[in-house]
């Protein structure tokens, strides 16, 4: 008590400054831990999982949406939930995201469940990391321990999203470079691309590969290309499954499709096109357990991507806006 009484007004201000300074990237994200919420909010993980399970039971596509949201969050200024912020100039308006990224309302539901369990405790970035893991395991994929303790950004940058996210027309060297720029290896890139074992893509993203405008020598199975052209018609907004074999199951069907030259996106097929990743794709195609183990490890590594030092951070109450 005596000690508390000696805290003067200036020293209180100093303490406040010090604690605010700690809520920047350097202090806040250094020590992600699987035990972060053990005392702070033991009910967090079950709360998030039930919200995700409800959404995936109603629509398996919700699981794919959550997984992609996490990738698009982590690749743009680290895993800081910046992708969830509404507003002009934010990441939601970036080329790879606008009219395409989905599942925001599922994150809202998971965050509401987290707030009900422990008000103000869990960041949107952690809720999204848990939701992505739960989505994968609910769709039949691997599970892993999520390292936690992320904080949320107060701002989002459309330009950063446009600059950081690889596009579906990318060749293998630029895919490798985009992941290398985030400290992830070519092997991580190939394993993480296995996320395309679930979910859908709009015709606009693969029409050129399947159609008359295909690049000379585009590696595509002719029957598959004809099917895609039929499915798309004139409508660029129609969708096709990224994994035609088992569209809603998280398995290694994506890699089997690549070996048969039935990858949906040009960037998918680039992983099996006579280049450095062919052997790994063949391995994942015949050994689902090897893919599952590598995917889980790579998701942990992607989840470690941190905001730049000095970024102002907080635990947002509403994932769509800063506090
Ligand atoms: C390697 C580079 C990648 C490229 C070029 C790429 C590109 C794309 C494109 C163009 C779509 C379809 C979007 C649309 O039509 O609206 C898509 C969907 C998807 N991507 Fe990727 N992606 C990549 C890596 C990843 C990674 C690393 C993950 C997750 C770990 C991921 C998860 C997904 C999922 C789950 C979907 C389906 C989403 C849904 O159904 O809503 N992608 N991706």
UniProtKB/TrEMBL annotation:
<keyword id="KW-0106">Calcium</keyword>
<keyword id="KW-0376">Hydrogen peroxide</keyword>
<feature type="binding site">
    <location>
        <position position="197"/>
    </location>
    <ligand>
        <name>Ca(2+) 2</name>
    </ligand>
</feature>
<feature type="disulfide bond">
    <location>
        <begin position="124"/>
        <end position="319"/>
    </location>
</feature>
<dbReference type="GO" id="GO:0020037">
    <property type="term" value="F:heme binding"/>
</dbReference>
<dbReference type="GO" id="GO:0042744">
    <property type="term" value="P:hydrogen peroxide catabolic process"/>
</dbReference>
<feature type="disulfide bond">
    <location>
        <begin position="203"/>
        <end position="232"/>
    </location>
</feature>
<keyword id="KW-0560">Oxidoreductase</keyword>
<keyword id="KW-0349">Heme</keyword>
<dbReference type="InterPro" id="IPR010255">
    <property type="entry name" value="Haem_peroxidase_sf"/>
</dbReference>
<feature type="disulfide bond">
    <location>
        <begin position="74"/>
        <end position="79"/>
    </location>
</feature>
<feature type="binding site">
    <location>
        <position position="246"/>
    </location>
    <ligand>
        <name>Ca(2+) 2</name>
    </ligand>
</feature>
<keyword id="KW-1015">Disulfide bond</keyword>
<keyword id="KW-0732">Signal</keyword>
<feature type="binding site" description="axial binding residue">
    <location>
        <position position="196"/>
    </location>
    <ligand>
        <name>heme b</name>
    </ligand>
</feature>
<dbReference type="GO" id="GO:0006979">
    <property type="term" value="P:response to oxidative stress"/>
</dbReference>
<feature type="binding site">
    <location>
        <position position="166"/>
    </location>
    <ligand>
        <name>substrate</name>
    </ligand>
</feature>
<keyword id="KW-0575">Peroxidase</keyword>
<dbReference type="InterPro" id="IPR002016">
    <property type="entry name" value="Haem_peroxidase"/>
</dbReference>
<feature type="binding site">
    <location>
        <position position="78"/>
    </location>
    <ligand>
        <name>Ca(2+) 1</name>
    </ligand>
</feature>
<comment type="similarity">
    <text>Belongs to the peroxidase family. Classical plant (class III) peroxidase subfamily.</text>
</comment>
<comment type="similarity">
    <text>Belongs to the peroxidase family. Ascorbate peroxidase subfamily.</text>
</comment>
<feature type="binding site">
    <location>
        <position position="82"/>
    </location>
    <ligand>
        <name>Ca(2+) 1</name>
    </ligand>
</feature>
<feature type="disulfide bond">
    <location>
        <begin position="41"/>
        <end position="118"/>
    </location>
</feature>
<dbReference type="InterPro" id="IPR019793">
    <property type="entry name" value="Peroxidases_heam-ligand_BS"/>
</dbReference>
<dbReference type="GO" id="GO:0005576">
    <property type="term" value="C:extracellular region"/>
</dbReference>
<dbReference type="GO" id="GO:0046872">
    <property type="term" value="F:metal ion binding"/>
</dbReference>
<feature type="binding site">
    <location>
        <position position="243"/>
    </location>
    <ligand>
        <name>Ca(2+) 2</name>
    </ligand>
</feature>
<feature type="binding site">
    <location>
        <position position="73"/>
    </location>
    <ligand>
        <name>Ca(2+) 1</name>
    </ligand>
</feature>
<dbReference type="InterPro" id="IPR019794">
    <property type="entry name" value="Peroxidases_AS"/>
</dbReference>
<feature type="binding site">
    <location>
        <position position="76"/>
    </location>
    <ligand>
        <name>Ca(2+) 1</name>
    </ligand>
</feature>
<feature type="signal peptide">
    <location>
        <begin position="1"/>
        <end position="31"/>
    </location>
</feature>
<keyword id="KW-0325">Glycoprotein</keyword>
<dbReference type="InterPro" id="IPR033905">
    <property type="entry name" value="Secretory_peroxidase"/>
</dbReference>
<comment type="function">
    <text>Removal of H(2)O(2), oxidation of toxic reductants, biosynthesis and degradation of lignin, suberization, auxin catabolism, response to environmental stresses such as wounding, pathogen attack and oxidative stress.</text>
</comment>
<dbReference type="Pfam" id="PF00141">
    <property type="entry name" value="peroxidase"/>
</dbReference>
<keyword id="KW-0479">Metal-binding</keyword>
<feature type="active site" description="Proton acceptor">
    <location>
        <position position="72"/>
    </location>
</feature>
<feature type="binding site">
    <location>
        <position position="91"/>
    </location>
    <ligand>
        <name>Ca(2+) 1</name>
    </ligand>
</feature>
<keyword id="KW-0408">Iron</keyword>
<feature type="binding site">
    <location>
        <position position="80"/>
    </location>
    <ligand>
        <name>Ca(2+) 1</name>
    </ligand>
</feature>
<keyword id="KW-0873">Pyrrolidone carboxylic acid</keyword>
């Amino acid at each position: 008590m005596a000690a508390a009484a000696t805290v003067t007004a200036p020293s209180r201000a100093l303490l406040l400054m010090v604690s605010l300074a700690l809520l920047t990237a350097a202090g806040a994200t250094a020590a992600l831990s699987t035990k972060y919420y053990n005392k702070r909010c033991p009910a967090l993980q079950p709360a998030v999982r039930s919200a995700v399970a409800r959404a995936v039971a109603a629509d398996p596509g919700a699981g794919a949406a959550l997984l992609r949201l996490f990738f698009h969050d982590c690749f743009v200024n680290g895993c800081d939930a910046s992708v969830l912020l509404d507003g002009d100039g934010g990441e939601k308006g970036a080329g790879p995201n606008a009219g395409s990224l989905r599942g925001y309302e599922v994150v809202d539901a998971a965050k509401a469940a987290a707030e009900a369990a422990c008000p103000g405790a869990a960041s949107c970035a952690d809720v999204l990391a848990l939701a992505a893991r739960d989505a994968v395991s609910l769709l039949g994929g691997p599970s892993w321990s999520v390292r936690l303790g992320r904080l949320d950004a107060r701002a989002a940058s459309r330009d950063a999203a446009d600059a950081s996210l690889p596009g579906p027309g990318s060749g293998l060297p630029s895919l490798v470079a985009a992941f290398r720029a985030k400290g992830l290896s070519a092997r991580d890139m190939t394993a993480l691309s296995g996320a395309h074992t679930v979910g859908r893509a709009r015709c606009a993203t693969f029409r050129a590969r399947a159609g008359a405008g295909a690049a000379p020598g585009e590696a595509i199975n002719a029957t598959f290309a004809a099917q895609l052209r039929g499915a798309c018609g004139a409508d660029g907004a129609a969708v096709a499954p990224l994994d035609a074999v088992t569209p809603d199951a998280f398995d290694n069907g994506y890699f089997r499709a690549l070996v048969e030259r039935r990858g949906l996106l040009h960037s998918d097929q680039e992983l099996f096109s006579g280049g450095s990743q062919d052997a790994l794709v063949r391995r994942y195609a015949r050994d689902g357990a090897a893919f599952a183990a590598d995917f889980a490890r790579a998701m942990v590594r992607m989840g470690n991507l941190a905001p730049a030092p000095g970024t102002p951070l907080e635990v947002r109450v509403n994932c769509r806006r800063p506090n």
